[in-house]
Automatic annotation (TrEMBL):
Belongs to the aldo/keto reductase family. The record marks 85 as: Lowers pKa of active site Tyr. SUPFAM superfamilies: NAD(P)-linked oxidoreductase (SSF51430). This is Rho crystallin. GO terms for molecular function: oxidoreductase activity; structural constituent of eye lens. It comes from the Eukaryota. Substrate binds at residue 118.
Length: 324
């Protein structure tokens, strides 16, 4: 498996996605400027895949970094793959394009490379936008995500986005979308939490059978943001077996955790705002895990979601009631 930072996977619509991306999620109390600095560092180091989201609130800074590097001549726009996400309060068909255009406006870009439905659940914009808004609760909506998808297809036809995908969908929800009458574009990917404690083998196998790429977030466990994560859960990078294997290869536990996911044929998003770690994460291309170590790491699965989005557990489209 001779992966390099230039390696890309071909999506079912013919577009190409780099197999390693920079994640840009940050807790609300993290300065937005850190995302801008991190993206600049990552692009200088050769990252060509940046993963963002409207709900994170830092797309303006990410856009500044991208445009800066284009102006400097470091990259051309077509060299870079940017993923944005439609937040759950924009699922009504008449709101979908507005959600996409807001991201484009914030970033100062003409198009996105990939736009995902962030979750399969719809929320009313009159409620809270995210869990950190403690003054307001979420207000559930009942928009059929198949109707949302049709509006997304129109955005692709309008040239505002190159590829369309989903995030946090289970098998049943993917099947419903794939079997939708009049489906014009299949989702190219399903972005899900995936790591040594949540290997997603069954969902990955299903997606592979449908030519849908799995993209992994939280590959190093979690950002430990109390708004989303139970802080009593174990710290993944402290796992003794993971660390033992890392020592064997003279690598960090983070590099081994990421390489494990890459070797499973899954695209990896590595979130970091530390220049040293952004550089170190490229070490995943300098070694290969032996089959017996892949098997050992696979056995650590405990179906553990660090980000279960429990605030919408009662929503009829909550994805994690199903086995996968």
């Amino acid at each position: 498996m001779n992966f390099t930072k230039e390696t890309r996977v071909t999506l079912n619509d013919g577009n190409m996605m780099p197999i390693l991306g920079l994640g840009t999620y940050a807790a609300p109390d993290v300065p937005k400027s850190l995302a801008e600095d991190a993206v600049k560092v990552a692009i200088d180091l050769g990252y060509r895949h940046i993963d963002g989201a409207f709900i994170t609130g830092n797309e303006m800074q990410i856009g500044n970094a991208i445009r800066c590097k284009i102006a400097e001549g470091v990259i051309k726009r077509e060299d870079l793959f940017y993923t944005g996400k439609l937040w759950c309060t924009y699922f009504s068909p008449e709101m979908v394009r507005k959600g996409l255009e807001r991201s484009l406006r914030d970033m100062g870009l003409d198009y996105l490379d990939l736009f995902l439905m962030h979750w399969p659940v719809s929320l009313k914009p009159t409620g809270a936008a995210d869990p950190s808004d403690t003054d307001k609760p979420f207000i559930y909506d009942n928009v059929d995500f198949c109707a949302t998808w049709e509006a997304l297809e129109a955005c692709k036809d309008a040239g505002l986005v190159k590829s369309l995908g989903v995030s946090n969908f289970n098998r049943r929800q993917l099947e419903r979308l794939l079997n939708k009458p009049g489906l014009k574009y299949k989702p190219v990917c399903n972005q899900v939490e995936c790591h040594i404690y949540l290997n997603q083998n069954k969902l990955h196998s299903y997606c592979k059978s449908k030519d849908i790429v799995v993209v992994a977030y939280s590959v190093l466990g979690s950002h430990r943001d109390k708004n989303w994560v139970d802080l009593s859960l174990p710290v993944l990078l402290d796992d003794p077996i993971l660390n033992k294997i890392a020592a064997k290869y003279n690598r960090s536990s983070a590099e081994v955790a990421m390489r494990f996911i890459l070797q499973k044929g899954i695209v990896v998003l590595a979130k970091s705002f530390s220049p040293a770690r952004i550089r170190q994460n490229l070490g995943v291309f300098e070694f290969e895990l032996k089959p017996e170590d892949m098997k050992t790491l696979d056995s650590l699965d405990r179906n553990l979601h660090y980000g279960p989005f429990k605030e919408v557990k009662q929503h009829p489209e909550y994805p994690f009631h199903d086995e996968y």
